[in-house]
Amino acid sequence: MDCPVCKEPMIVLELDEVEIDHCTSCGGIWLDAGELELLLGDPDSRDRFLSSFETDEVTEERSRRCPICRKRMEKVSAGANGKVRIDRCRNNDGIWLDEGELEEILQMGSLGKDDRVLRLLKEMFAKKRQ
Ligand SMILES: [Zn+2]
Ligand SMILES: [Zn+2]
Q: CB 3.0–4.6 Å: which of 5, 16, 83, 85 could bond 79 by disulfide?
């Protein structure tokens, strides 16, 4: 699968038994539909977070194409005050997270299952930056 930003092939990484696609040039992450849910813990905070998704029609960020169906993705703001802005496939193939956005999401409230996922993420990206 190619990165929707750089068009470079992404690599597959395993994060707490979830396979994610990661672009080593821009640091972005592609999550197939349902994978974000797997990385989030506590069902209550997870549902609260997922229901905070709001389509953002006015953003000036460039829209990107879904790496699976190639259609333009929609911008969605998520979290309290629409803190994180992600790209979501309109056909529900999955979501695209720019570098650092998954960490931001996991750090929000009590979203992370435990600190393990966050720690894994940090390790993965620390390796990359060395
Ligand atoms: Zn990229
Ligand atoms: Zn798609």
A: 83
The total number of structural domains in the chain stands at: 1
128 lies in some domain:
no
Q: Ligand 1 centroid to 10 CA: how many Å?
A: 8
Whether the CB-CB separation of 77 and 85 falls below 8 Å is answered with: yes
- Answer yes or no: is 103 within a domain: yes
| C-alpha pair distances (Å), 39 with each of 2, 29, 58, 62 | 22, 13, 29, 27
Q: Is 2 part of any domain?
A: no
- Give the Å distance between the CA of 43 and the centre of ligand 1: 31
pLDDT of 35 > 60? The answer is: yes
Q: Which amino acid is at 107?
A: Q
Predicted TM-score (pTM) of the model is 0.87
Q: Any idea which ligand is nearest the CA of 91?
A: 2
Cα separation, 32 vs 89, in Å, equals: 10
